[in-house]
Amino acid sequence: MSRWTDGYLDMLRARLAEVKEDERAAMERAAEALADTLAGEGLIYVFGTGHSTALMVDVFYRAGGLVPICPIFDERVLLHHVPVTETTEWERREGWAAEAFQRSGARAGDALIIISTSGRNAAPVEMALAAKEAGVTVIALTGRRYADSLPSRHSSGRRLHEAADFVLDSHADPGDAVVEVPGLPQKVAPMSTAVGSAMLQAVVLQTVVNLLERGITPPVYMSANYPGGDEHNRAVLARYRGRLRFL
Prior knowledge:
Layout: H1 3-22, H2 24-39, E1 44-48, H3 52-58, E2 69-71, H4 85-91, H5 97-104, E3 111-116, H6 122-133, E4 137-142, H7 144-148, E5 166-169, E6 177-179, E7 188-190, H8 192-213, H9 229-238
Parallel strand pairs: 1-2, 1-3, 3-4, 4-5
Antiparallel strand pairs: 6-7
Helix pairs in contact: 1-8, 2-8, 3-8, 5-6
């Protein structure tokens, strides 16, 4: 590999080490809250806009992942929307995310993970405020350095980390991309997806461990491409028929 790819991977390794050290307690608190939700027969919802939807999908219907996780999809902020540039406009706009939350079926006792790297746009903040008002535990995955560098686009003046019960800080830099290449004015190679995915998977893992320590066997998917996977998944999914969307 070139010094550029080596450099990026070294930066990613350093960022993960930073998150491991600084965010360990926050991830443990979030995992305990999710264990409480599942122990109480609640569901875990996930919401993001734009590229944050990649992390939303990453924990949904995933081999080795928890079954009772339900994304809140909205076509206006998914990247197959045409023209894709409108997704940027929608994530900045108030007035629709609260309605999307109401349609999701989430209720008191559930939890909602909201992903926004900058944390400043109106839709994620509105979603968080609607969820908290409904008695849903809100966990934000965001970049505090990024968020603290810019004002909110929500009328409340709050950014996502200021509207959540628990905060997972990905340590994303303002602008997200991290590599300076001579001859190019903007940086290249964002880091929030790789770091955010690692953080969410670590929280899911700790949630599973927490439930086992309480004597509860957590419902976890097996790979459908692994022997016995289909049979296992049919059994665990049967428990959530009528509750989880997309089944």
